Amino acid sequence: MQFKNILPAALAVAAVSAQNDTSMMNLTSLIASNSNLTGLATLLKSYPNAADSLANATNVTLFAPSNQALQAVQSVLGSANGNTSGLVTALLDYHTLKGIFYASNISSTPQFPHTMLNNTLYSNVTGGQVVECRLEGSTAEIISGLKQTANVTQANLNFTGGVVHVIDSLLQIPGNFSSVAQNANLTALLGAVNATNLTSTLDSASDITIFAPSNSAFQNIASAVGNLTATQAAAILEYHVINGTIAYSSSLTNTTIKTLGGGNVTVTIVNGTVFINSARVVNPDILMSGGVIHIIDSVLNPINNATGNTTDSAPVTAFSGASSGTAVPYTSGVSTPTSSISNLVASTTAVAASYTSVVPAGGSAAASSGAAGGSSSSSAGAGMQTGAVGAAALFGGAAFLANI
């Protein structure tokens, strides 16, 4: 796989020049020779095991954090206890793609290439955790955990084992379901999952897609929720999970997909709006340790899988006769985030407005675990905000650090 049209012409010319100057260097020499990467060079000297692993890698693409981006690492290593070398190795692995990907081929359709991060403490994605790569205007963005965005500022620095792109902020390793749901203020879904004893299942799952109803979606059917048994609630939640397939937004197409509970959901794309049955996807591609979350505007119902909602501006409930309540169901005992991350709570209906669907040989993109993320690469992306952050935020949530 390759990327597409990334940066302005001036940067592209500079990148070609740099590429000619560095193509015979090994990675360590390239990093040491670049004034924007002195912080990374210092970090690698401090953690020789992590440095050796990176230096020996071949056929790879490194998103190299600039000096400014690496400011965030200082607070992480200062606040983390125990195996900081393991943390640094995981972080470097997450910045390293399998395969050589040139910036000139990133496109506006997001792609999701696999990284070298296979440590099960951090990732349960077959083939390695992914980043999202996309072209936004003339800027190549790399999107990581918590939907944080890093920009490519220096592209196509060749070395003997692959290529380096310098980025302006650090990529964040995605957290597990619970930490992501908490950060995205999906507290009703998190409370419902806790109440039905599905938390550990989703936190430890591998290669799953979750269509996650927003808090308002649960509130819109508050009267129906009050009449559900635990078994019925669990069945509804399982209807929101695709097991064994990571269906990133750019691999979705008009199709039906079997859910964890056994029933099928129907995916429909109309003028860039993605529907799951009659629910809209309003925030796609939130990465987590075991796959991806797409936020939807209504709760799916396994016994009412009607499609539609293509012209109605308001969410359509799949629970006949249900009415909204003044409180959000299932949120009792679930803490509300003290601050919100704008990219996680943003809402849009133009999810796939500029996408060019790529259907792999042999079938529907959405139904193929390889195309959806099981073992294939895609790209287009974003990373993390500049400045110091806590260890839990950088590594996707305290749940991971507690196990170090």
TrEMBL record:
PROSITE patterns: FAS1 (PS50213). GO terms for biological process: macroautophagy. One of its GO terms (cellular component) is fungal-type vacuole membrane. It comes from the Eukaryota. It holds the Pfam family Fasciclin. InterPro entries: Adhesion/Biosynth-related (IPR050904), FAS1_dom_sf (IPR036378), FAS1_domain (IPR000782). SMART domains: FAS1 (SM00554). Residues 24-171, 173-300 form the FAS1 domain. This is FAS1 domain-containing protein. It comes from Friedmanniomyces simplex.
